[in-house]
Specification:
22 helices; two-stranded antiparallel sheet; mainly alpha; 461 residues; 2% strand
Amino acid sequence: MDSESNIKKNETPGVVNSHKSRWSDLIRLEDYWAIWFGFVIIFGSLLQWIPKIPKVGDWTTNPLTAFMIVKEGLVTGNILLDLILLMVGLGMLTSIGIAFMRVEKIGRYFLGFIGVFIISCFAYWISHQANIKYCGLSYAMWALLVGLLISNTVGTPGWLKSAAKTELFIKTGLVLLGAEILFKKILALGAPGLMVAWIVTPVVVIFMYRFGTSILKMVNKELVIIIASATSVCGVSAAIATAAACRAKKEDLTLAVGMTLIFTVLMMCLMPVFIKFIGMSPILGAAWMGGTIDSTGAVVAAGSMLGPTAEKVAAVVKMIQNVLIGLLAFFVALYWVTTVDRTPDGPKPNAMEIWYRFPKFVLGFVAASLLFSFVVVPALKGDFNIVEASYIKPVTKVLRGWFFCLAFTSIGLESNFRDLASRMEGGKPLILYVVGQSFNLVLTLLVAFLAFMVFFPNAVQ
């Protein structure tokens, strides 16, 4: 991953250079700008300075319906102006960071951003068609596919590629995701939720990494750990954090994300049907899906097919699992610095070298979670409904979706099938995912059964 926040040009292979941390890093490194962008949006929403963010609507046969505002069955306007303002606003906000990081000319970046935003709108529009949405084909998949189509046919023009800042967009989205990780909600499910999310996850990561490197003999260890992280934690979000920690190449990330999105759709559609078919308890089924489906949105959609209580259980289990993003990034950075990237005769790494490798945007993710969990919610006397209705859903959650969509579009625009094919190693990444996800399904079901049916049968009323 060619991120300014993670790669230093003067590094030698196998050694993480020791260098003095500078205060200028706070305004020249991408990870920190993701934090600044995230908290500008968070505080802007808390202070109610940011108006309601437009969302592309659902449509069936009339494509224009997606951009209409309908109240009580009557069309009262459209969101086109709001979308233009959002495009300009996000373009100007991110241009500030681009200027300080000096990675692109501002005019060229802003022009490219308009193109990336329009493609992202197109992806959102496709995904909201009624039949496509019913099949679970999310905006993330369409954004990736449209980007790949452009990149592998006419080719991505330079002016458009200049705004394809995958890491900046996804990291900002992950900081905003922290605002949705509320610890009191997590603790409401208690010990059984923690068992499913925190016991299974590290076991699956270790199993998949050992299977990929020792059994499949995969040379690309970065790809192995990205696939393992995406499978065991929360798909794309974990993949991005892990890729930053181990300095994976963008093509590795694209391949892992593509596989994750495809299997997420399949699992989201098939698991609820299977659970109903065999007569499994909805609570057990929800916990099982929450621990295995690789996307929070897909987990909620799948859980809703089993009922409102199951939907909440599935969402909370996935939310508990999402907490591990930061810890996973830390331990991957630690392992890569001390083992994978260290040469036999190289110097022993110290704590500061691990700090340099650690993806700093994770600190923003954790800080946002702590802010909402221990400041915002208590200030509102623990009223989650006010928090979600007034802040998380209309502003931070919707903007998180936009940043993620921009990121998936950027991944597609920067990738080509030839590079992806060169990383397939005879189909080993696919084998790794299938075997790892199968192990994950079996182990999660076993632990979920013990947690919700045996040890804590009354945890969910």
